[in-house]
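Researcher: Quick sanity check before group meeting.
Model: Go ahead. Protein one:
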Amino acid sequence: MSDESAEPVAIPHTELPADTLKNVIEAFVLREGTDYGATEYSLEQKVAHVMQQLQRREAQIVFDPNTESVSIVVNPQSAR
């Protein structure tokens, strides 16, 4: 067993089947409990917002082989 950690791997959202992509986004939205301010959004609306961020490359899906988990992170270039 190696003590070295593997680097997280970016997964293009276009490479995932539609159902898998939706499940990843829904899990992220539910896990994050994102606060959208005074306006309440449905799960479907939140999923659509995240999908738009992925399409605009403002966010990306990342697989961490160390924890065997998937997350969505904001791209550093879009946070400027």
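Researcher: Fine. The other one?
Model: Protein two, sequence then structure:
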Amino acid sequence: MLLGGALVARAELNWQTDAAKAQTQAKAEKKLVMLDFTGSDWCGWCIRLNKEVFSKPEFAEYAKKNLVLVEVDFPRRKELSEEQKKANAALAAKYSIRGYPTLVVLDSAGKKVGTLGYMAGGPTAFIAELEKLKK
């Protein structure tokens, strides 16, 4: 039963890949943008973050109300379009990304308000950190 819940939560999250569109949406809806710089199919900490936080119903609920989610992926096995690879590389350069997972949080105007990474404690701890950035 738990597995089904996790799958539903993951499906409910709308991870975008176009940061500019996400920023426009965030401005209109007065939400934060969370850029998830990840190696989705090889980075152990990224996979743990996904399993322990992003796949949980509590996070899905919070994200729906407060966040516009953007996946900036650097996979090794999954193929991305050249256009997507270039866009992701440009974002990584813009925010000086040095490792994965790195989560860059922007306010609705596009200003960087914080950076997060993997943390223990599941969705509760993660949401608490996001709440601090909203202030």
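Researcher: One line on it for the slide.
Model: The first strand starts at residue 15 and ends at 16.
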